[in-house]
Design a protein that fits this description.
This protein is of the alpha/beta class and about 425 residues long. It is about 30% helix and about 15% strand. The chain contains 13 helices and 17 strands. Strands 12-11-10-9-8-14-15-16 form an eight-stranded mixed β-sheet, with helices on both faces. A seven-stranded mixed β-sheet has the order 1-7-6-2-3-5-4, sandwiched between helices. Helix 7 crosses helix 13. The longest helix is centred in the middle third of the chain and has 16 residues. It is globular, with a radius of gyration of 21 Å.
């Protein structure tokens, strides 16, 4: 619905357009993609005038040498200003900008894809250090994040109604974890008797989904801690065989170093390890990185930033407007999750429903326990992915957006937490 509101950032046209209209150049979103945007525009000799961010707590602080302005301040700018959406929250930002009447709003896909970031130092002293997505020098990580941005944009563009393209699916292969974080946003802290996913059910479910969709950018393997499951090599070997899947990403906390068959399965160009560095808790980080580098396996290691999104709250009555806005701004509202033969719209909904803390709602789930023809399954998946305004789980969630309070990551508990009544 916003297609006519966004402009292409094809570089030759972009330089001409900005030269012919010397209005301010503004980047919306002060994070990893903003860093890319600054580098790409500087490469074209285009000067950035301001950075705006929806997080009001950041107003007046500095990012990459620029003072961050608030959306309220942005309202005072010329409506001919050139605004580049450099955030994963494309839809709510676009809604806001179009409601204010801004006319030059840019999709950065072409700008990013046509910039050689290997030649641009994004971590120099003038721009500071970004921890949201790890080291900005990691070109494999940069290309992966550009792909994720592109697929975020694709969600708002009209495509063949018979096609279904998914940004990613979380593949939960175990409920067990080598850590017990009180505030885990995937709710592992509530599992009393965690189990590994039944591999036969998992493979049948995967085959159905892969047959029904046209393309998936990432299949994300996680738990818990995925390397707790000793059969992970079978799962990775299965995932890399799917031709309509671009990448397989394994999320790990660096407590377990894969060996033998589990290590060998990682030696595939599709495979990428996303490592969260929890300091002393990630006790095998250096050893893991050493093994990955020795075997030329792609990875990124990053310090985490957590929000208060890992608590199951007692049911809270909210208006439809509140639920719609909460869901629209959520950074996980498109993370389709496969758990125990069912597809959910987000990991909080998946795990909360799985442990019985959130009521089962068949409208929020695609059940794969019975074989479905690909046309029917595609229709059900498309409905879940594109037509939901909010989920039952939203009434039990504290939210997961720029306004959710940040917390200290990975505080440990020795016993599972009780489920709120």
């Amino acid at each position: 619905m916003f297609l006519n509101s966004m402009k292409d950032s094809e570089t030759a046209k972009l330089v001409d357009e900005i030269s012919s209209n010397p209005a301010p150049v503004i980047l919306y979103g002060a994070g990893f993609y903003c860093r890319l945007g600054i580098g790409a525009l500087k490469n074209l000799n285009i000067q950035v005038d301001a950075i705006c961010d929806s997080d009001l707590d950041r107003e007046g602080s500095y990012f990459c040498g620029y003072e961050i302005i608030s959306p309220k301040t942005l309202k005072t700018f010329d409506r001919e200003a050139h605004i580049f959406v450099v955030s994963i929250f494309v839809t709510p930002i676009l809604q806001f900008l179009t409601s204010l009447g801004f006319r030059n709003i840019y999709d950065c896909t072409n700008l990013f894809e046509n910039t050689d970031f290997s030649e641009i130092d994004l971590d120099d002293n003038s721009t500071g250090k970004d921890s949201d997505y790890g080291e900005s020098r990691n070109i494999v990580n940069i290309n992966r994040q550009i792909g994720l941005y592109k697929h975020e944009i694709l969600k708002i563009l009209p495509i063949d109604s018979n096609e279904l393209h998914l940004k990613y699916i979380d593949i939960v292969i175990t409920e067990a974890c080598s850590m017990k974080c009180i505030d885990c946003s995937n709710l592992m802290q509530y599992y009393i008797n965690p189990k590994h996913s039944d591999i036969d059910i998992l493979f049948r479910s995967l085959d159905q989904v892969i047959t029904a969709v046209d393309h998936i950018y990432e299949l994300r393997v996680l738990g818990g801690e995925p390397f707790v499951n000793k059969q992970i090599y079978k799962i990775i070997d299965k995932l890399v065989s799917y031709e309509n899947v671009d990448k397989i990403v394994i999320y790990t906390n660096a407590t377990i170093v894969p060996k033998e068959r589990n290590l060998s399965s990682l030696k595939n160009d599709k495979v990428f390890l996303d490592i969260t560095d929890y300091g002393q808790l990630s006790r095998n980080l250096d050893k893991l990185i050493g093994v990955l580098e020795l075997n030329s396996i792609s990875y990124i290691a990053k310090k985490p930033i957590w929000t208060d999104s890992g608590r199951i709250l007692p049911f809270r009555e909210k208006t439809k407007t509140e639920l719609n806005q909460m869901f629209l701004n959520c950074c996980n509202n498109d993370v389709m999750t496969l758990l125990n033969g069912k597809i959910y719209r987000c990991p909080f909904s998946a795990n909360g429903t799985n442990i019985g803390a959130i009521p089962y709602n068949e409208d929020d789930i695609v059940d794969l326990s019975e074989e479905k023809d690909s046309k029917t399954l595609k229709s059900e998946l498309k409905s879940l992915y594109t037509e939901k305004d909010y989920l039952t789980a939203c009434s039990y969630c504290n939210g997961r957006d720029y306004s959710t309070p940040k917390i200290v990551p990975a505080i440990q508990t020795k016993v599972p937490l009780p489920i709120p009544k």
